[in-house]
TrEMBL record:
Keyword annotations of the record: Isomerase, Magnesium, Metal-binding, Phosphoprotein
Organism: Salinibacterium xinjiangense
Species classification: Bacteria, Bacillati, Actinomycetota, Actinomycetes, Micrococcales
Record has Phosphoprotein as a keyword: yes
Alpha-D-phosphohexomutase alpha/beta/alpha domain location: 51-190, 227-310, 323-433
InterPro entries: A-D-PHexomutase_a/b/a-I (IPR005844), A-D-PHexomutase_a/b/a-I/II/III (IPR016055), A-D-PHexomutase_a/b/a-II (IPR005845), A-D-PHexomutase_a/b/a-III (IPR005846), A-D-PHexomutase_C (IPR005843), A-D-PHexomutase_C_sf (IPR036900), A-D-PHexomutase_CS (IPR016066), Alpha-D-phosphohexomutase_SF (IPR005841)
UniProt-recorded name of the protein: Phosphomannomutase
């Protein structure tokens, strides 16, 4: 063990204002001084690097040290962001929001006092609120920037820090080169103790006006034609208060709720991971939907920027729709709106490159613009003339005039309106999927997700795959492979492989940007036969590709 490691740990401990993480470091330092190998390894892990500030801001496990989320790291990030904003414009302003996770309010208030101390006009939202409300507030208040303290659907012991830019950036999340400039400012700040940073409590704590304006505007996204019976779960997050107001203002009334998950609870006691995509996460929602005889069910993730939808199938069995299924139905709806009455000014539909190619087919059918982007709404929200965007990970942007980020509440309103219209016509969501397949073709998708404890294994797997690029996936020949590692076409460098296969199907392999996972995205389509035959053909190709990719990655 180096003397420098202990010195770094003691220096960090001395400036840490949090009793919990100070005690954590005290225990590790004491044990490391006694040559405890586990303590030395723990200190090395925490102090060998910093949590990297990038286009997702910060996100990581709570704990002491620069490689964890804690008050020292957040204070340094706030001071660096303040320095960046003051250099960017003469009189910057910022609005700060937070969710219901552990330390979210503490991190938000630390950020507010640092921002105000640096001379940035600062507004703090009044209590824990959904991420879309913060994203809305950046635009609505005309702020230079926004910070949302949230780890979205990450495990319970994580937290994070999302940064938005206003004015010319229209309230979108940061992208390069801004992320690098902010990271450089944070690095410079981190060379001094946070005790030396100026602080002030001269900031505004907003009232409910901003939230109520978000509710008013979001309620205009969709209206019911006939009443719906639906179920809602907040997945132990902060969505319920705002979503309930929006549903009522839009005319949908109050849903039946999943009582066990409706209030914020940072321990997420009923789910292994607070992500509606995870197996078992929606079991309570399904049970409640059956109990009340619901038409459909709506679930937000803990910060309510994502939406999961569940419906009863023709066999009566409830199922969660995939992000691609919801995204394509809402995209079809957006295209109809954009061209209603013969309108020709159109606009652009956008989706991340890992999302279903079906949105491109919709855009072509309606003669609208279309743009593939890198993953994340920081990219989708910046598509020119955007009228709708989605990504397969349950993210939808249905009204860019309100929010320039994914919004699980406005998307819920739009989907509820669709379900109400179909019910009025005596049709179901499955009937609507038949109509979609008849018009655009049937699109099938699947995802292979491999979780790693050691992050180096993810990059190692990608390196191995590049060294042995396949000629076949399963029994399907490979046509071509796009490697984004040094940049590809208009895209900047990224650790992505896109495999085009004979017959038009596609496989994309990439590390997750927010979780310790390697993800494989598989898409296929068919226009042969009726809707049922088209679905069967597309699903058969996806099944073959999924089995083939599992075999490749296992090898």
């Amino acid at each position: 063990m180096s003397a420098g490691l202990l010195a770094d740990a003691r220096s960090w401990r001395e400036q840490d204002p949090d009793a919990t993480t100070r005690a954590e470091l005290d225990e590790l330092i004491l044990a490391a001084e006694a040559h405890d190998p586990a303590a030395i390894a723990a200190l090395t892990d925490r102090f060998s690097a910093r949590l990297e500030f990038g286009t997702a801001g910060l996100r990581g496990e709570l704990g002491a040290g620069p490689r964890r989320m804690n008050r020292v790291l957040v204070t340094q990030a706030a001071a660096g962001l303040a320095a960046y904003l003051l250099k960017r414009e003469p009189s910057p302003s910022i609005v700060i929001g937070y969710d219901g996770r552990r330390n979210s309010e503490v991190f938000a208030r630390d950020t507010a006092t640092i921002m105000a101390g640096a001379g940035v006009t600062t507004t703090l939202l009044p209590r824990h609120l959904p991420t879309p409300v913060l994203a809305f507030a950046v635009r609505h208040l005309g702020a230079s920037a926004g910070v949302m303290v949230t780890a979205s659907h990450n495990p319970a012991n994580d937290n994070g820090y999302k940064v938005y830019l206003g004015r010319a950036d229209q309230g979108s999340q940061i992208v390069p080169p801004e992320d690098g400039l902010i990271a450089a400012a944070i690095a410079q700040i981190s060379t001094v103790s946070i005790d030396e940073l100026p602080r002030s409590t001269d900031f505004i704590v907003a009232d409910d006006t901003v939230m109520f304006e978000y509710v008013r505007q979001t309620a205009t996204v969709g209206r019911p034609v006939v009443p719906l019976k639906f179920v809602y779960s907040a997945m132990h997050g902060v969505g319920w208060e705002t979503a309930q107001l929006v549903f009522e203002a839009a005319g949908f009334g109050t849903p039946a709720v999943v009582t066990e998950q409706i209030e914020p609870d940072a321990t997420f006691p009923t789910v292994a991971f607070p992500n509606p995509e995870e197996p078992g996460a929606m079991d309570l929602t399904f049970a409640r939907a059956v109990e009340v005889g619901a038409d459909l069910a709506i679930v937000n993730d803990p910060d309510a920027d994502r939406l999961a939808v569940a419906v009863p199938g023709r066999d009566g069995v409830w199922r969660r729709l995939s992000g691609n299924e919801v995204g394509c139905l809402l995209g079809w709806r957006a295209a109809e709106r954009a061209t209603a009455g013969g309108a020709t000014d159109g606009g652009t539909l956008a989706a991340s490159i890992v999302s279903s190619p079906a949105l491109r087919a919709i855009a072509a059918e309606y003669r609208l613009g279309y743009e593939d982007t890198l993953t994340g709404f920081k990219w989708i929200s910046r598509a020119p003339d955007l009228i709708y965007g989605f990504e397969e990970a349950l993210g939808y942007l249905v009204d860019p005039h309100i929010v320039r980020d994914k919004d699980g509440i406005s998307a819920a309103v739009d989907f509820l309106a669709l379900a109400s219209e179909l019910k009025a016509a005596g049709r179901t969501i499955d009937d609507h999927f038949d109509s979609f397949a008849d018009r655009f073709g049937a699109y099938a998708s699947s995802q292979v997700s491999l979780r790693f404890e050691d992050l180096s294994q993810i990059s190692g797997t990608m390196t191995t795959l590049r060294s042995r690029l396949p000629n076949l996936v399963g029994s399907i020949p490979v046509d071509s492979i796009d490697d984004f590692i040094d940049g590809f076409e208009q895209y900047p460098p990224g650790d992505i492989l896109r495999i085009h296969l004979e017959g038009g199907s596609r496989v994309i392999v990439r590390p997750s940007g927010t979780e310790p996972k390697l993800k494989v995205y598989i898409d296929a389509s068919s226009t042969a036969g009726d809707a049922s035959e088209r679905r069967a053909a597309a699903n058969a190709v996806v099944a073959e590709l999924e089995a083939g990719m599992r075999a490749l990655l296992a090898g």
